[in-house]
Queue: 3 jobs
Job 1
Amino acid sequence: MIRTLGISCFYHDAAAALVCDGDIVAAAQEERFSRVKGDSSFPVSAINFCLEQGRCDVGDLDAVVFYDKPRLTGDRLLTTYQATAPRSLDSWLAAVPEWISKKAYVGDIVRSALGYTGQVLTVPHHLSHAASAFYPSPFDKAAILTLDGVGEWATASVGIGEGDRVTLKHEMHFPDSLGLLYSAMTHFCGFKVNSGEYKLMGLAPYGKPKYVDALKESIVEVLEDGTVKLNMDYFGFLAGLEMTSEKFGDLFGGPRRLPESRITRREMDLAASLQAVTEESIMTMARWTRRETDCENLCLAGGVALNCVANGKLLRSGIFDRLWIQPAAGDAGGALGAACVAQHGYFGVKRSPLTGRDRQNGSLLGPAFSRDEIRAYLDANGIPYRVLEENAYADTVADALAEGLVVGFFNGRMEFGPRALGARSILGDPRRADTQRTMNLKIKFRESFRPFAPSVLAERSADYFELDTESPYMLLVAPVREDRRLPMPPDDPGSDDLIEKVNVKRSDIPSVTHVDYSARIQSVHRDTNPVYYDAIQAFEKRTGFGVIVNTSFNVRGEPIVCTPEDAYRCFMRTNMDFLYLDGLWLEKTAQPEWAEEKDWREEFELD
């Protein structure tokens, strides 16, 4: 058996993945164990989980594979700082020591941290992304498009996957980067880079794309192949510690929005404008890729591939017949890609036969906890619960949801990637107009404008959404069917009252219908997650609706829960009504009083 362990770390979203004879055995982000959001440290806990899941020791590994080429990254850093000195001194002092102490000696760190004496391989960053997109996909041949901020010198790549081989043919190079442009606007609109980009995407439908011309005339040029050229006069990341320069603010009417301050019409319109430019670039790049590769199928990865609005429009464009997007499209997925590259490119392992819809196993690749383990934790801590009969799981969850109550849902193996897919989820009733605001403010403790995703029975998807394909990983946005929509009041172009906009009922499933009548869809199959599927089906029997609200099991600023202890802590800190722990049922009103050393919610300010 050939065992390869892929790792990503020292930038953001560290992770580990184990692949054995072409099969994905395990994959998880370090943040889920450390409880540090976006943890970039060496993923010791994630590695230990992967080895335990694979029932092997570190000495059984044929290779440990890093998702990046540290020397090429160092070359970019040194070249950039040399070109921008002395203005780049502060940036130099922040970045270079970090690179020297960590990435430059990744092999030594692997051997020291793990006690490992075998091969340590390094793989180009965008090859890791491309491999993560193609090898788990259902395609024998496909074009591959990767888009992110930067990896070594590359910021985007186009390649082909065929059989057991992935080949990159074209690259876009730093500092021109669609991902860095999106991150710069994320920063300017007051959100955190490398975690707040999805907030900007969610904000975009509230605005108008009034700044598109300003962006394209001054800041970004979209070329014929879809790649971009950035005017670096408007950015600060080359020579400084800020993403944008003063000129960026001058162009858009003043300095950046301060984090946690009120979101105004400007931020809404900037988000809408950038989303429009992003979609133009992706569509143009996709058309060029189709012409260059003559492939009918497309695989996507890289952080920009998490832009599910653009993904949905790309699917509907018909440029490619089919899309497959890596569920962990960001840097975490690079660990999986690195392990796959070594499997198939270095050791010559054949791809596993396709036995499901893809080779990602529903992305349910993280830890699971047995009923006995969960009961032991609850009993040891005096936590009251009720054991559900096996045939009562779905009915109990569905009854609570149908009454408008909120359920924390902890079920089986944890998801790999940023989306909760019914293993570590918080569930609600999509029919209620107040569900979105209630869950955002009283449970998630986050911005009220943030939309929630629907989980829908796969065979019922077309009854609710204009989508004629599967979306198992919540990576496609599609419109709600017209016959389910309700008329919207006229938009006040001068209004920036997000709360007023959020509270408008837009369809008969209002809590999963965004302001533009769109939804970020997860289609659920019984063979992938039977307990979750049965709960949705039971809800349909009670209400006539085969769709529920699904959001990740965490609160703002924290990673998705991993363990039963994490789940209980989150349950008690929020206004969830019930907690389902793999067949055990916890009612909030029956729980002992929860004691905190301090009110942890003081750390969060709400928009």
Job 2
Amino acid sequence: MSDSRKKIATRGSGNAACLIQSSLVLSLLLVSACSRYVDVVPTSDEKEAMNSVLGFLDTVNESALTGAFSGLDSESYTHIVTTQTLDETGTVTTSSVDILDAAAFDPYQLPDDRGYNNARHETKFLYRFLADTTLGDISAQVVDIRVRAEAAKEVPVQNIRFFVDRESLNVIAIRLQHRTESLLYKEESLVYMEGVANGSGMIIPSRFDFQTTVKAFFSDPIRLSTSSVFEAIEAGEAVSDSVAAGATGPERS
């Protein structure tokens, strides 16, 4: 996966996309300024697992998913977005549902440096293959990369999971969690994007979710959640049966 260790290109909308992008940039700045270097020496088993996972990721096609969210147009897709704000207890304080023009979405990119794809930080993560799961009618192999507790303050990306179609080796979903904390600021966010194969086997967009909690010094926390569902206009129905049924994605919260 030549670009699997580089970037995830996804799409958002309006203020939510701006908040995500600003949050990620600030995360990187704060981590660079406030973190200390932790030298981690993995055990032989941990190093073997790391090499196995990274070797596998080099063989999969992440762009099959990320490309599905690029260049969406209003003639092919409708975008339905649910936006919620929540209080400190998790109670929803405001909620809205909007049907938007897919062509109006502004793209944004997650950081090129995910930590595990940086030689300086790769040993600060634990690597493993999880049990297979089913997305739609696809059997997906799950790869989990999680930062070690002692190194969590060094990198904003805390955990990333890839869901890979065993037959085509296309990545069909990505779940990414990042966190930053300093004396003046704390941010925790979760991004989940999922695609589904159409009749010809091409991955098309299904859903994109974003959740974040931001707490600045001397201010109340801001909690925002957006859940985007993409409907294929040509098919006349939601591209994912699980989405149409109102199901949540695999371990997104």
Job 3
Amino acid sequence: MSVSEAAAPRLAPRLAELASRLVRPGLLRDQVALLVLSMVVNVLAFAFQFVMARLLEPPAYAEMFAVLSLLALVGVPSQALNTLAVKITGELFVHGRGAQLWSWVVTALTRIGVAGLAIAVLVGLLSGLIRDTFQLSGVGSVLAAGMAIALSYVVVVVKGALAGTRHFVALGVLSVAETAVRLGAGVLLVYLGLAAAGAVGATAVAALFAALAGAVAVRRTVRHGVDHPEAPPTEPPGWADQTRILLISLALAAMFNLDVLFVKHFFGESDAARYSAIALVGRTIFFAAAPVSLVLLPHSIRAFSTGRSVAPGLLLSLGLILAIVGVAVAVILTYPAQVFAVLFGGRYEPDASLLWIYALAGTLLSVTVVLAQLQIGVGHLTAWRALTLITAAMVGGMVAFHGSLAELAGVLAVAAGVAAAYLGVHTAILVRRVDRAQGMGRPAKVSQATATAPAAPSK
């Protein structure tokens, strides 16, 4: 009997067990539900842009787009805050600490609300300068953006808590309702004559709705969903680990957003506009797969805390991401002219080389984020050093190599590739070590404080 024939009987049960775990209904159901609802959100968001482009005069639409871009830039740190909220609430939820979870949410909402209000006041004080810098018609849209900033940071905490408690259908429905309210409020406010200020103000109205509705949903979840802890009680991440989580998330957010700023600094308006259009199309690849990474984080927390293997969830998430990214890349690269015609009405022409580079960067960033989410989920937070260095090196590379748009985009793709390779190697080692330790029924030491001792594997 050959070695392969002897190994086959031992390998077959392992493959069967892995396959059964890959189709575990909880994770797969949440992935599919959030993906479907996210597509509805994207359709409504596109409808908002489509309707505003037809209701507003060209100068007012350009003003709305500029202010919303500023709002997105200021909101970059909220991506890191969302990851932290998912991690902390996920840890508290899986260990049955409902009272502590709600207390953390209330405290976070209060602190973030105060910080958001301070940002709104600062934006109001600088509204004249912002108006002159971006050549806006008035300060109304800037003031509306300030209110939207304050409320959007509050919404991030609420949505993070829903994700951390694994209520993804509620999260998706809330996001759909928020985007629908934004569309309706935008139409109403523009018809009332508020022009760009009304279009931007619709974002603040929608955020207020989402904050109130989301807080109610989280409160009901805490009351009815954590009576029976799924794992032994442990301490949630302390300040040191919370800082590491924020640094990991901020590094990834910076890696994803800085290239557009460098293009605007180093290139003229026409080149910057062309690159922004290509970046918008390329980022569709990343955003299409983003819900998969979000779902993986709380599920990896649950798997690790209850002594289950984290490998099936990771493999399922990677498979879904590669499938989604594959379809998106195929459509964008096969029909670039049609995609640009639908999105931009013929104002911008696709650049084949830039699209290929951005498609590669978007794919690598999608893989990087899902690997980072798994490591955060099991409390392995040492990646903050490498990701911070990679992002800093990317900034240096963009300063040194910006002779063309393709060259600058290439720096982004290289940085994303290095980050994906680094996290890939470390994740493979981590998963093997965690699964081996859990299979022996003992704690897996993967981090300084956040990696709690998982329970013995359930049969």
